Amino acid sequence: ASRFRGGARPRAPNSMEDCCVVCAEPLTFVAYGPCGHRDACVECVARLRLVMEDKRCVICQRESDVVFVTRAMGDYTETIPAERFDGLRRRADDGELERDAVLGMFFDDRATCAKIRELRGLRCRACGDASAEHGSLKALRAHLREAHGLHHCEVCLEGRKVFVSQQLLYTKQQLDKHKYGGVADKDNAFGRDGFTGHPSCKFCKKFFYDEGQIFHHMQSAHETCHLCRRARPDAYVYYRDYDELERHHRKEHHACLHPDCLAKKFIVFVSANELKNHEGVEHGHAMTKAERKEALRLNDLGFTVGASGGGGGGGVP
Asked: Where do the coiled-coil regions begin and end (predicted)?
């Protein structure tokens, strides 16, 4: 039986409060844990729990091993107190509820449970109703390839956070065009016009799902020149490794070649005067008296350098 939250005013039909906070689609069935936040639809909660391996409530971030799924009826939606969640397993054993043990979800509607099981399943869409459940993604992909000549995009499998049953299938020719951006994807599945293919790292020869992923990769796996970035903030130029970046430093800027600074890395300056000033301050003991005097004279002209060992590049005149 549904339970009415006494004193609460019924919400207007089709208001934003009646939409899933994740996908913004109208709520039909909600899934919630002991916290009682009934703001996400059953499909989004199932996807979070299986694909993202995230069992937290989307509102309060409380983690829950089990969730209850029921029809969304606004203020009349069935509400189970937190202390009664331990009884969901018993109700399922008694046949009162349907259970999906993989997702930790309990349903009071058999058809909705069957729909979610189908969504998360590893069945061949090309075989239709005759398809059997495959034991693993590897087995499903082998069947698709051998029986139908169809392929998943490996980049999408990793980066597009949907159920395997919702991933697109391609022939070999279609897959090449998809990956390199030869044609737009069917049904605009990526939610953006003018899809130009998955971006790739020219150093690693690896494809990434979108610009955000490749940006994170380039920032963490490769090098960029902080002096060039400072001069041209909108230009993103990367180098394979520090050895390649150091060659750029020596060719285009003024790098300190003292062994201590070479070991610290990134000790490089915009101008020759800044470099001389740095050498006088940091390495003056290795200079002749005249060289040190000349280097320190530049400091009197208004040049500044970073703190010793900072590795942050030269000062600004």
From this structure: none
Average pLDDT on 22-40 reads 96
Instruction: Please say if the pLDDT value at position 241 is more than 50.
Output: yes
Rounded Cα–Cα distance for residues 181 and 157 (Å): 17
Query: Position 135: which residue type?
Result: G
Q: By three-state DSSP, how is residue 242 classified?
A: helix
Give CA–CA dist 313/249, Å, rounded.
11
**Biggest alpha carbon–alpha carbon distance for the chain:** 94
- Phi first, then psi, for residue 66 (nearest 5°) are -130, 150
Interstrand relation of 105-107 and 98-100 (parallel, antiparallel or unpaired)? antiparallel
Task: Decide if pLDDT at 25 tops 60.
Answer: yes
Residue 264 in contact with residue 311, Cβ under 8 Å? Answer: yes
CB 120 within 8 A of CB 103: yes
Average pLDDT, the chain: 85
Whether the Cβ atoms of residue 313 and residue 226 lie closer than 8 Å to each other:
yes
Enumerate the β-bridge partners of residue 200.
207
Q: Which fold has domain 16-120?
A: Herpes Virus-1 (3.30.40)
In the chain, where are the structural domains located? 16-120, 135-212, 224-300
Q: What is the 8-class DSSP label of residue 133? A: P
Question: What is the value of pTM for the model shown?
Answer: 0.72
Residue-wise pLDDT tens digits, 276-301: 888 888 887 766 777 666 656 655 54
Scanning 94-186, the segments in alpha helix (DSSP H) are 110-120, 137-143, 154-159, 172-180
